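Incident review: delayed structure delivery

Summary: a single-chain prediction request sat in the queue longer than the usual turnaround. Root cause was a stuck worker, restarted by the on-call engineer. No data loss occurred. The affected request and its eventual output are reproduced below so the record is complete for anyone auditing the incident later.

Affected input:
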Amino acid sequence: MGMGFALTENLLVENGRIMNSSFGDYRLLRACDVPQIVPIIVESNEPTGPFGAKGIGEGCMVNVASAISNAICHATGVRLTDLSMTPEAILEGVEGR
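Output delivered after worker restart:
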C-alpha cells in the first residue's frame, strides 16, 4: 500500500471533476508489481491490548513515501516532494536541474 501511495496512485482532478474515478483509470499496484517484502516482526507484550496484542496495519505505511523520496534523491540528486513519484516526475526533476 505504501509503495502504491508513493509511486502510482494519483487522483486526477480537472476543473473540479475527478478524471480517474474508476479502478480502470486509477493505477493500483498489483502483487506482481512490487518486490518481495520480508517483514521483521518484533514481538512484545502490550498490557492495554486484548491478550497482550497490539494493532498493526496502515501505521506502517507512514514512512514508505519519505523513504522512497530519499532513495530517489540519493540516486538522482532530485528531491521530489509531490506524490505520486512517477518516472515522468523524476525525469522532469533531472532535466530541471
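Verification: Strands lie at 13-14, 17-18.
Action items: add queue-age alerting; document worker restart procedure.
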